[in-house]
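Now for a typical sample entry:
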Amino acid sequence: MLDQRAEVMRIFQAGVAAADPYAAVAQALGDVAAPALIVAVGKAARLMAKATIARFTGVPCLVVTNYENATALEGAAIMAAGHPVPDQNGADAAKAVIAALQAADGPVLALISGGGSALLPAPAGDLTLADKAQVNELLLRSGLDIVAMNMIRQQLSDLKGGGLLRQAAPQPVTALVLSDVIGDDLSAIASGPTVGPIGTAAQAIKRLRDAGIWNDLPPAVRQHLEATKPPETLPDARNVLVGSNSKSVAAMKKAAPDAHVIATAIEGDVAAAARQICDQAVIGTTVWGGETTVVLKGNGRGGRNQELALLIAQEAATRGWAQWTCLQGGSDGRDGPTDAAGGLVDQDTLAKIANLDALLANNDSYAALSQADGLLMTDATGTNVADLGVMIRTR
């Protein structure tokens, strides 16, 4: 009899493997000229840098990544920083990156991956790291999607929204980009350090007002946004997409050839996403990708993937499904501020959880899944292409 838990894990891991940063970058380096400086930032920065160093030996290389992935790499200076909330180490790393860019005496090769936005906080104007950290916490609780959050972050930074290009000028910049954004909008990935901003300060203000958090922002942030003028024309850059969520979904389909692929990316509120997944799941195997959002109402531990997994379990129970298994996880191996990548649930999950409604109301999906042996634990994967899901339904 098929071990459904083992099978959904196998398919998920095929998707993660397809986003291997080393292989993706190595394949893309064929027509990249030798740089004078390599700057890698994001959750996949170390492996992206490792592939690049193997090709361009001896080129100065600065890597900024999250703590879980910050192991030593010969030929590179590794700097670890906080994610998802920026910290002082990230601010120090941003200063080091800016100094290196300004001192570069030839072409710059930038290696960009998801997570870079929080990892390189470079407060603009008179803003402080504390201001940016407060903004980030408000954004993470707001329910805004990643594109909107990054549009706002860009307006508060000297590196985001094309800032890296300004710091490197007049040196030319080539960027290899591993996308964690659905649709692969380069201006949204890591808040677009090598492309123009997503929007204007006025548009950022509108989104903040619409989300109901404008008045909660630090006064200095409101003043900065209200005083910000449209930026000057950016220097040119060459941006190359080397990996994405859609490529990982295709790899899951290859690992399970008979699987049904949900063609539309799973985005938006987790409750609606759970219904969308269950509406389209077939008897057999179904795979999907995307990135959902959660409006935080409580102070529990968890993440969007863990909460979505539990809501899928509730939706399946409502529909009377008798035998099924579902894995919902982050490709980076980390879901929210926890050590879990997501959730692994089946027809028996709900019966093992006491007070589930109260736990969900407190956004405490980690505690709920812990009761049911439903936490997806993968350790940090060294990559980041948003979220992946697999369901096997037999009846």
In short: The chain is about 40% helix and 20% strand. The chain has a mean pLDDT of 94. The longest strand covers residues 284-293.
